[in-house]
Design a protein that fits this description.
The protein is of the alpha/beta class and about 280 residues long. The protein has a seven-stranded mixed β-sheet with strand order 3-2-1-4-5-7-6, with helices on one face. Strand 9 and strand 10 form a beta hairpin. The model has no long low-confidence stretch (mean pLDDT about 95). The structure holds S-adenosylmethionine. The site of S-adenosylmethionine has 20 residues, from loops.
Amino acid sequence: MLLELYAGIGGVAATGVDVVCAIDHDVYAHEVYTANFSHPALRLNLVSVKPARLAAFGADVWWLSPPCQPFTVRGQRRDVDDRRCESLLHLLTVIPEVRPPALIVENVPGFEGSRAHQRLRESLAGYHVQEVEWCPAQLGIPVQRRRFFLLASLEPFELAPIVRKPRQLSDYLDASGPPLPPALERFVDAMHIVDADDELAQACCFTGAYGRSPVYAGSYLRQNGAVRMFTPREIARLHGFSDDFVLHSDPRRATKQLGNGVSVDVARKLLESLGVL
Ligand SMILES: C[S@@+](CC[C@H](N)C(=O)[O-])C[C@H]1O[C@@H](n2cnc3c(N)ncnc32)[C@H](O)[C@@H]1O
């Protein structure tokens, strides 16, 4: 059983792992999470959660996807001085007290080497720890989403092998999609554009700023002679969600949530490594 902390819309639960409870403070993430999963999902700020409350779930694995902005250039890389890091710092005091049997922490590559990373390592005395940077493209999925993962377990474990099974972007696409927002049209020359018919095309990493920022927030698509945005459903497929996964009804909100989320396929490999899938 897994305890999903900073659960967002449930990219980890979407792997099919048994979840005892999900926790996130965001009302819109909670809406989507509960539309998709029937296990308990709490709207709770983790910044002051009591150790006994988390211990009471009796989970075998904790999954933590804390906010990444303190470790990104766009977020000014303020690391532990960023208020968005407060709840993680609190949980790093809870972990040695509760000692969950295993845990996985996900963040952007910029987390590695940060002061928060150092404190995380300090909180894991007695655990077997492995760190990886994995990306769905390594599995043959045509999207970049490189993320740092720390796996820790009280028992020794081995990382699941990564097997590349190449897939084509066209398999993830709808027949049409939304045009570029007018504010982005003049930046078309600067955008990363992939061609719907290109068998080797790989989309770059979609972030929460997709559709607002012309660069470094995801790729745009050339299809039937015009450049358009990827739809939230297409991004969801690239992130490993099946088509019956309910997305937020507001496409901008859905895109932002997916841009904050985890690759379901990569999460599955990590959970296999700890023997929970
Ligand atoms: C990187 S996203 C996690 C995404 C998730 N793994 C998914 O697949 O959708 C971080 C999440 O942490 C939540 N969050 C940030 N600070 C929090 C806090 N103090 N307490 C609870 N949730 C928090 C945000 O609402 C957001 O959904």
